[in-house]
Amino acid sequence: MGQQDEEIPEPEKPKMFEGVPFTKWQEVERFINQVNSTPIPAEMSISKKPTTLYEEWRALFDLIYRRREVSQRSFRGPVRQSEGDYLDDVVDAYIDTKAGETDPMGYKKEAEKKKEVLEVTEFEDDVVLDLTGSMKSSGAYLEQKKMVLANSANIMGLNRRLNLSYNKNSMKAPLSVKTHIASFKGSNTTQLHHTRDDQMNEKKLCELYDAFDDTETGMGNLHGALVQYRASITSKLSKKIKQGKLKKVLTIISDGEVNNQSGIVSLVSELRELGIIVQGIGFGDGSESIRVICHNPNDPQATATPDNIKGATIARHNLLVKHLKNI
């Protein structure tokens, strides 16, 4: 066979992982892992010791699991016959009886444990992002991308651990964590990236990784994004919230002036009346807007306006964990 007749091998096809090129997932995973290595100071951590964002999510799972773990029967003993529920040690009881003891030892009593009633079976971490052009020019878009993408990945991991059959079957009130992600841009543009009914997975994380870089100049249409968000709250969801079965937290992120501020304040008030927890994170010039929009006299921590852009990831984590760790 001549040299010209030799078969030329086909170029190797990119290896796939969960529906996306493996190299793409590696890029996204490195980004998430870098964010998860963010140090969390002792005063802000669950354990009150210096940790990382990744370790905080591990601790969060442990908190949720322990509160929901099915209690095992336990017994107190040995006790006297008058205190016990059943005879456990025949020899002890016989010796005491022979010695003339009218209330012999050798009995056990089932310990009574007061069971905590856990109503919440669903938790929803929702976010409305600012993808206006000013976010990119200030660098705030990257911090926003870090906090939301890492948070989405950590919720995915938390859900997977909670739904392992070993864990799920050991909890008296299994928990499902969902998320709704929307954004507003310039020129009245709004976009829905992820709904509560969507399944968060590696492919979706890769899509979000790219989407969070796509900004557009102009005053942000936050009002339009919140109108769409309000429309997603069905009567069924509202009933679940009122019954205490669903806890829903919405975080609004912005770095500048927004359109129709009075209309936004009215919508935020309406969402809170439905039982939704609304909080905000403001960057730079947007800090004052967020303070006005998300002001809550009953919760001074409903807004976070970090001086340092890089502090937003920790601020976002704290706003979420203060609600999630108590369900």
Tell me briefly what this model is.
42% of the residues lie in helices and 18% in strands. By secondary structure, it is of the alpha/beta class.
Could you give the topology of this structure?
Elements: E1 16-17, E2 20-21, H1 22-36, E3 39-40, E4 51-52, H2 53-68, E5 75-79, E6 86-87, H3 90-98, E7 107-110, E8 122-130, H4 133-138, H5 140-162, H6 165-168, E9 176-184, E10 190-194, H7 202-211, H8 222-231, H9 235-243, E11 246-254, H10 261-273, E12 277-282, H11 286-293, E13 303-304, H12 312-324
Parallel strand pairs: 8-9, 8-11, 11-12, 12-13
Antiparallel strand pairs: 1-2, 3-4, 5-7, 6-7, 9-10
Helix pairs in contact: 1-5, 2-5, 5-7, 5-12, 8-10
Total domains, how many?
Answer: 2
Determine the CATH topology of the largest domain: Rossmann fold
Largest sheet: 6 strands, mixed
**Spatial strand order of the main sheet:** 10-9-8-11-12-13
Helical content, roughly?
A: 40-55%
Examine the secondary-structure arrangement and name the CATH architecture of the largest domain.
3-Layer(aba) Sandwich
Mean pLDDT: 84
Q: If you compute it from the alpha carbons, what radius of gyration comes out, rounded to the nearest whole angstrom?
A: 27 Å
Question: Which CATH first-tier class of the largest domain would you pick?
Answer: Alpha Beta
How far apart the termini lie comes to 73 Å
